[in-house]
Design a protein that fits this description.
By secondary structure, the protein is an alpha+beta fold. It has helices spanning 4-18, 23-26, 74-87, 115-139; strands at residues 27-28, 33-38, 41-51, 56-68, 92-95, 101-109. It has a six-stranded antiparallel beta sheet. The radius of gyration is 16 Å and the shape is globular.
Length: 148
């Protein structure tokens, strides 16, 4: 019997096919992650295992780089990110430790997730990332993140 991670990965593969791409075009075997573009946004999807003393949990994680923290007006920039976090439902804006790269991020425990919910999660993040990278590039001199 497949485990939850395997089931979620099969659903991501199905989604990839549904949007007209192939696993060969999008999947990085070494990273066990999928990559593609939606408009100006670069999308990354993977299933992350979080280990506890007695068990593991698996999370769908969807990311897209949307902006770099600008050299000037950082306070205004961070305030704008917090305001966007409040209004852009289903997505959060994050920074990885030691980085100036801002990501649109979506995460959800895969337990109980069906295909329709997975599609909604990924498609929502795709849409918001495509909007947010343009909006932040227009508002701040930091500009658009580099395209991979």
């Amino acid at each position: 019997m497949e485990n939850l991670r395997d089931q979620a990965e099969v659903m991501v593969d199905k989604f990839i096919t549904q949007i007209g791409l192939t696993k060969e075009q999008t999947f990085n075997k070494e990273r066990r992650a999928w990559y593609w573009n939606r408009g100006s946004a670069r999308i990354e999807v993977f299933i992350q295992e979080v280990k506890f003393d007695t068990h593991s949990r698996y999370f769908l994680r969807v990311f897209s780089p949307v902006a770099k923290v600008p050299a000037a007006d950082k306070g205004e920039f961070y305030r704008r990110l917090l305001e966007l976090n409040d209004s852009k439902l289903g997505v959060k804006l994050t920074l990885m430790p030691g980085s100036d790269q801002v990501y649109a991020t979506y995460e959800r425990d895969i337990k109980g997730m069906d295909y329709d919910e997975l599609v909604t999660c990924i498609a929502d993040l795709e849409w918001w990332a495509d909007v947010l990278d343009d909006e932040l590039a227009q508002q701040f001199a930091g500009g658009r993140p580099p395209q991979a």
